[in-house]
Write a structure and sequence with these properties.
Blueprint (H helix, E strand, L loop, with lengths): L1 H10 L14 E5 L5 H9 L4 E6 L12 E5 L12 E7 L9 H10 L1 E10 L34
Length: about 150
């Protein structure tokens, strides 16, 4: 996960997010994983209150003082006592979020007016440069290995 983080950070020219918001007072990082994104944001924005939330408790025990790590399932109703200026996810498509409509319902519920939900996700479209991959094949229709990829356009 940390290698993916660093490769995306290089791709984004060391920006933590692209949302047009400067110095967000409060940030929620859903699917924080190892917590590296949330810790870097906490270090760079010392006046920002950040919550990193994940299903697995794999984050370090020592984190910046403006970062709180919470264990939660993003597919269950969220139970925060605050709203956020920025809600962030990265690489949560596939098996991490069961229902993107539910995710956005919760995100909009806990977002401040004028806030941003920023998702950095991959959209896979398998093709062949010579046109030989059949449209109804297992790779193209998403049934290879029993996986189905759904796109959410919100």
């Amino acid at each position: 996960m940390d290698i993916h983080y660093h490769s995306l950070r290089l791709t984004l020219e060391n920006k933590h997010f692209i949302a047009p918001i400067k110095n967000p007072p409060s940030v929620l990082d859903i699917g924080t994983g190892t917590g590296i994104w949330a810790m870097d944001v906490a270090d760079d924005y010392s006046g920002t209150s950040i919550i990193g939330a994940d299903l697995s408790p794999i984050q370090p025990t020592v984190v910046p003082p403006n970062l709180e790590v919470q264990i939660m399932d993003a597919d269950e109703p969220w139970d925060f006592h605050t709203t956020f200026d920025l809600i962030h996810t990265r690489m949560m498509n596939g098996f991490s979020i069961r229902s993107w409509p539910f995710f956005y319902e919760q995100a909009f519920k806990f977002m401040k007016p004028g806030g941003w939900a920023k998702n950095q996700e991959f959209d896979l479209d398998f093709t062949a440069d010579d046109g030989t991959m059949p449209e109804d094949g297992a790779v193209r229709n998403g049934t290879l290995y029993g996986m189905r990829v759904w796109r959410s356009l919100v």
